[in-house]
UniProtKB/TrEMBL annotation:
CDD domains: PKD. It comes from the Bacteria. Residues 323-388, 426-477 form the PKD domain. InterPro entries: PKD/Chitinase_dom, PKD_dom. This is Gliding motility-associated C-terminal domain-containing protein. Keywords: Signal. It comes from Pinibacter aurantiacus.
Amino acid sequence: MKKCASILFLMLYYAAQLYANHIRGGELYYKYLGPGNSPNSSRYQVTLKLYIDCFQNNPGQNDEDENFTVYEKGQTNPSFTVNAPKIREEQIRYDPNSNPCITNPPTDVCYNLRYYQTSIEIPDSKVGYTIAFQRCCRLDGIQNVSNSGRTGVTYLCEIPGTDVLAGAQKNSSPSFEAGDAVAICMSSAFKFNFGATDPDGTDSLSYALCDAYDGAGERQGTCFTCVTPNPAPPPPYSPLPYRPGYSGTVPMDPSASIDAKTGVFSGIAPSAIGQYVVTVCVSEYRKGVLINVHRKDIHIKVSDCVPLNALLSPEYHFCDDFKVAIRNNQNNPPGTMYIWNYGDKSKPDTSYDPSGNVTHTYADTGVYQIKLTALLSAGQCIDSTTAIAKVFPGFFGGFITAGTCILNPIRFVDTTKAKYGVVSKWSWAFGDEAATNDSSHIQNPSWKYSTSGSKSVQLIVESSKGCIDTVLNAVDVKEKPTIALPFRDTLICNIDTLQLAAIGLGIFNWTPNVINLMRDGNTSNPLVFPKTTTTFYVQLNEDGCINTDSIKVRVTDRVRLNAGNDTTICLTDAIVLHPQTDGLRYAWTPAATLSDSSMLSPMATPTGTTVYEITARIGKCSATDGVVVTTVPYPLANPGPDTVICYRDTAYLHATVDGISYAWSPLTTLVNPQSLNPLAYPIRTTVYTLTVRDNKGCPKPGVGSITITVRPPVIASAGNDTSIVINQPLQLNATGADFYQWTPPTGLNNPDIQNPIANISQNMTYVVKAYTADKCYDYDTINIKVFTTLPDIFVPNAFTPERISNNLFRPIPVGIRKLDYFRVYNRWGQLVYNNSDPGKGWDGTINGNAQGPDTYVWMVQGTSYTGQVIFKKGTVVLMR
């Protein structure tokens, strides 16, 4: 059992190596060696060149030989299969140090080239042969191929038959030149040379981008040899599954293309870094006849490098203004300096913009040669290019159309303006989705559409000076012509004449067109004069396209009008007038107090009782009516002037009214709110509203308000009680208001200031009144003990927490202006209490935890009123 498992493991390992993803391109080509040993046969040397990734870490796809399958064209059974041994291997890579003008050069552009070669002899054929090779697998993550790791390769070469051209079998494949390892940088200009030579020396070559072929990319079950099928299947072969937006002819950015004559593939590289499969087909022509198409594909790596490149379009046309804007067509490495020479003998410009953006104003029209020089590293790296600038401003493309009906051709009229030169080329695209030939190159073409709807028409127009403009307009193709009517229903008086109106392209015909109803009925705007309500029909004929519409003309013999009912409003209020009428035009008087005297329902703001009259008209008929708006003043509601009170004080309100009822609000802080003179006791600033009603006609109440401003409470403070020594001056300091009065005045130098100085020889209690300019006040007291000793700090020697008395350990300062600190330590030197407020003390706890009975050390320091520092220390006993 173990032996079987080992064999299975080795088979799986070997299969994994076969299936490894290494291939980065290749080609199969042949060389004509001469006639074969058999009559009417030829000998060829067939070579397979495989590009293998240099950076894969396993030995997969390191085959020592490969198999080529030969098919005569048109046959599905192979003629034979031949084995080709590996004859050599070489490596090519891009040297990142080769170009100092590329920032962040790639280090992973590297191919291992493996060559497999053999010789074959085949009978000359009229149809020719296809030689094919298949294998998996391409690299994972190719940018332009879906699931690229599950794809493979098919490389083939074709030997032409004698039916194509006599002697065509004596041919060798084109030979591609070297130079596959190049640096291509994202979003930058690049060139990749697919140029080849003709070994026969008789054929001409033409290059084109084409599909790369898939092959042998999917492993089926345990079919490990499916990765290298032998024989290879017959043609035709399937193209790679390109990602959306990519194809064989668009393998990278759409701007990239190949020169059909030189084989140089160039353009702007994509912005996404990674591998891109690019395939080139080289067509061989001999004596003007296509005898062979040879293919080569390679995975081109786009890197995140930044090259120095001066890149301009070959030609610029500035046709809008003399002020032109131009830039380098790619971003260069940071620090690049751009020098612009505009070709008009003006001073060159220097730009350090990442794209070299500049603007320049030419003095005159003309054709100028622009030169751009890009420099980097103080001139160590330099690149330059030139372009042609054609400056001929004043070119504006445009066109109009005539006709709208699907039954007839739409006529297009070019309206392009050219200040310089003449309009010389037109390219029309009519946007007809049902046609493939909907284009024209004449100046004023016509086109008949087969479907109706909005069509997007494009005109590309060019002047003799090279100016080009593109115009896009939407053209509406209708089943029938459009008739635009300014109205469809109207009213006239029976003595009036009305002019109808219709807008459209074509011939108009109105009915009923009779002598007593209408005049000019075959025009777009006839006159009508019906005596009764009549519907007039209009027909529009646009070259056989017919459309109809109608206008109803209602006829009346008088104007119906009711200005509305008389009404009463409060003086200074506004009211909207609402008359009832079938009139079409209106005029109100007097106009001074109306928002708009020509409106049907204006806003009226009368300054007194007013009669408003309205005249309504229908043509020559009119009617007049009036409405009386009576104004009554609002009831008088005067709650009195605003006032200010102190906190928790009261105010009497004294209102004056002219009405039959009144009400105060809010009621919660009023005493006797049913009277005109209630007592208010708000604790915060309050607005009281008085509402008054009467029976004089004003439908709204009169409203007045009074604001009672409540001053914040005054909180007086005379300071903490204190002790002094006899004959020691004590400066008092009160807070809480703007003004102060101390009583009694005994011993005070000034009893009417905030901070008087007291000189007393006995205990004294002072009362301070703190008050504001609004006479709001509060009282506080301070008790002063007078000792006959010098300034000192007395500290008790014991205290008993949690008892009624002596439960707080605190100092008693005498004659001390400021207590600097009071600190208590336990027997281990730990600070258990620290404070500088003489009114506070230690309660025998640390962080809320009660301390046990013990002896504690204290220190205290204070400063007397004369500046003397008093320091004392000692012990205290905590007892419980």
